[in-house]
Amino acid sequence: MVTISHCFQSLRDRQQCALIPFITAGDPDLTTTAEALRILDRNGADFIELGVPYSDPLADGPVIQAAATRALQTGIKLEQVLEMLRDVSPKLKAPLILFTYYNPILHRGIQAFLAEIVAAGVRGLVVPDLPLEEAGKLIQAAAAFGVEVILLVAPTSSQDRIKAIARQSQGFIYLVSVTGVTGMRSQMQSRVQHLLTDMRNITDKPIGVGFGISTPEQAQQIREWGADAVIVGSAFVKKLAEGSPTQGLQAVEKLCRELKAAISPISLQTVASA
What we know:
Blueprint: H1 4-13, E1 18-24, H2 30-42, E2 48-51, H3 62-73, H4 78-88, E3 96-99, H5 102-108, H6 110-119, E4 122-126, H7 136-145, E5 148-150, E6 152-153, H8 159-168, E7 173-176, H9 191-200, E8 207-210, H10 216-224, E9 229-232, H11 234-241, H12 245-263, H13 265-273
Parallel strand pairs: 1-2, 1-9, 2-3, 3-4, 4-5, 6-7, 7-8, 8-9
């Protein structure tokens, strides 16, 4: 099993910034989700984050909430998502990161849940409502399965808390760029740059920045500020939901290519010399 950590080390060796698209499983349907995963994998995604639809998604903004609601209304459940992944994941190069809230994990039991997601090809796990103080049990159990639990740093986190999160987070550290829920923003807040600098003085683990990034220009800015990964969610979810599934998939492919080009070293050199 290729770990997220190993993939990030390979990207660092090549001085590349990772692109991590996010989509919601089952919106508009699982067949489209499966094809979207393949398209993202072929068009520049270094990792892919897949959200499991949940009825009370506290960390998600209106776009992703609406996608989760639509998926739930058609009867999408975790079992179906994992069944789809068992078929698709062997054909993907990009490691899969599952985004889920903690209740489904507790409902199944940590060991059983981890066994299921590993069998489906999942390599990483983001649990936005799992506080640092309660994360140790899941992190320890996940390590035995080869799954890396990625913890989130809020822009309001203290230095001591950032240090504690950095010590425990596996794979990379997920820096939330804004206070609040996910969603597209018109511009990036400059404090993200200062947060990245502060975190570099604390840890050498990779740092991915997410929440609020939707355009190639914003992605390029985040890379120039020193992020190891750019995480884009609502923009992809919105594109996939617009028009027919075929139109949505075409829009996702186009956005993925544009974002990857914006954070690639060649693109940045071209911009600098223009």
